[in-house]
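Moderator note: this is an archived Q&A kept for reference. The question asked for a predicted structure of one protein chain; the sequence and the answer are reproduced below.
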Amino acid sequence: MPYAPRTTPIVASLCFLAVTGGYETFGFWWVRGPDQNPSSLRIDPTAERSRTTSLRIDPTISARTSALRVVPIEIAQKRGIQQVGEALARTEQQVITLPKRQPTLTERAAVLAAKGRYQEAIPLYQQALQANPKATEALAGWGRVLLELGREADARDKFLAVLALNPRDAAAQVNLGVACYRTGDIDRAIQAYQAALAISPRLANAHFNLGMAQSHRGELEAAIASYQTAIKLRPQFREAWNNLGLLYEALGDLERAEQAFRAALGKPVPGGREPEAGYALAHYNLGRLYEKRAAYDAAIREFQTAVRQQPNFPEAYLNLGNVRLLRSQLKGTPELDAAIEAFRKAIALRQGLYPLAYENLAIALSFKGDKPAALAAYRTAFDQYEGASADTFENLLTTLADETQFLIGNELTRSDNPGNLRPVNQTATKPGTDRLLELLERYAGLPEALKEQPDVRYCAGRAYITVGEAEAARNELRRGLELAEGRDASARELLHALEATMAPPP
């Protein structure tokens, strides 16, 4: 049955607002509208439609994230871990106090590691272990360096070696838990944190890390208790206050969430000013709460404070753009261009690798009436997601049909991100491939004239690849190449790789 565009009512305020993905607003709103490497193809026409599609991650993406260590959605999807707030579990660090005597190899390595010179520290740890294979301080220091370099499996082995020599090393248990958590082995991480606390119950970092792992498993009340214990042990533990606020938000207690975020900011200095060394992430979360309450002026102030305190904060720029876009359409404010500028700033801070910002930029460009630029932005987003985002494809269809109901949000709203926590009153969404299949049926019913754009055909081709529909993908890519008069190099490469996959074995 041909798809019929829906008639969308024009209203002046938010029509439907729901909490999704754990902590953030997810707006379904109506307003007055105005080179991937093809070797990553995974075509299996006989596959179960509900299978998940893992993303191939650019190995340099960790260097492109914000300095606040917020794990981006691309890594969260790959590893199945959450990326909210202070999402990286905290290691137990070695206290460096150089003696007056000549420092040992391990002490010299620790100094280098403290300065971020990890590669230079490793040979010194190795030399220390060659001299004494049972040097647990060298093993532990090497493990922490490996964690900083993103080599979690190797780090885990080092901490296990420490524990084999000294089973009651609480710090090694904490760091083992961190290594396991970062690889997605949540159960093993919890075991390690609990073992550390059995040895040393007053380790605030262990309680904090345990709260994160419990949150991941959906044990929100237990996680709250863990964060509260961490705060009792360390009252100024702002990261614990911040994550506690996120859990209250997930439980729908926005008043307590706001109190926790404000506690994370600490006491203001005399005169009502915040200390110079502020906590940008808490401002970011306060901004989100104000956005939920449609207090857009207050939300923008918080996001602006966040980026002033932490200029390399692409997630805050994304939300700043979201609020400006939302307000421009619902309140008629002349700030659509400012929203576009904020999205582009977020993209620049990620060195061009930020699919969600490209998607929201596409929505803003749709309202601006620049459909070709919007379609190009959707294509970039879809490419960076490797065609695996149903939300992105749904927004593209909305732009194509000249409708005005979009799904807009940030990392914490994505229904296709398995790492996001879900509020207790929200059911799970359909698997991404199931949604993509439904959306592709909707796409097939659109008038052909709406689809006659190279970028549209390319995105549809990638979507068909994701669900295992190789023949349909080939048809879309071929048509896209015809529309581009053969000048679409990435579409041509993708088509060649697809056809090679479809070819019968010799």
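Archived answer notes: DSSP finds 23 helices and three strands in the chain.
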